[in-house]
Amino acid sequence: MKSLQQRKETRDAWLMMFPALIILLVIAVYPILRTFWLSLHEMVLTDPGSGYPFVGLKNYSDIFRDGRAGASIFFTFKFTIATVFFELVVGFAAAMIMNKTFKGRGLVRAAILIPWAIPTTVSALMWKFIYNDQYGLFNDVLYRLGMIDGYRAWLSTESGTFMALVIADVWKTAPFMALLILAGLQMIPGDLYESAKIDGANSFQAFVKITLPMVKSTVLVALLFRTIDAFRVFDLVSVMTGGANGSESVSLYAYTHLMKFLNFGYGSALSVLIFLVVFAISLIYMKSIGKNLA
Predict the structure, then answer these.
(1) Following CA atoms 229, 233, 234, 237 in sequence, which dihedral angle do they give, to the nearest 10 degrees?
(2) CATH code at 116?
(3) What tens digit of pLDDT does each residue of 149-204 get?
(4) Whether this model's pTM surpasses 0.90
(5) Which DSSP letter does residue 49 get?
(6) Same domain flag for 179 and 153
């Protein structure tokens, strides 16, 4: 049984956490519950006379019959897989570089992290100008290198739009992946590499046998954050393409129904769907992280 001192400490801990729990309930739990409640009703503000009747799971079933919703879900998954993969590759390479000891390392670290510090809306506007078909830097560089014979409207085709969004997102968020992986690399004792070198292991063998296993947990945490963030992509797509050419994400489609069509029932159902997918992704990653730590 707990002693009197332990019970007092437990009570004091709950008292100190109580204000934070109240705030969490107000700003997080209540909106989630309210959104779920709205998703079970037909609530169209452009037709207030109809009332807000309870429709059960009708809004959710409508999602599976909505071709535009299906296209937005497919694009979101495709975008998430592509961006997270390239961010992992680029971020890991950048982390390995930043982990080396060389002259000017601090400057290199600062330069690599600059894109992550730029607000996403500003970054999206910048890339939109870069891809401009008349004066964009992307066309100019490719033209000077002889890779294209004329300026192209990259954001006018589905494949070009997808490529542009992936490049912009990787440029913006790969530094975040690199920062997390760098923290994991710096936790590896240098003695392990010295021992491997004495045993005759080359750089590749040391990377496979020491580096990868030691940073596995860190990589999983980085993948967790980036996968969740990529699946909820909104501002990058909204600013760069507005959802044109098959680039509409689920978040942007939900926003369209909520704020433009004022269909709070269907829009809330889409929002709940995003929440459930993100929650499932989190559970999968957390289970993998737990197994790795064990």
Answers:
(1) 140
(2) 1.10.3720.10
(3) 888 888 889 999 999 999 999 999 999 999 999 988 888 888 888 888 887 888 88
(4) no
(5) G
(6) yes
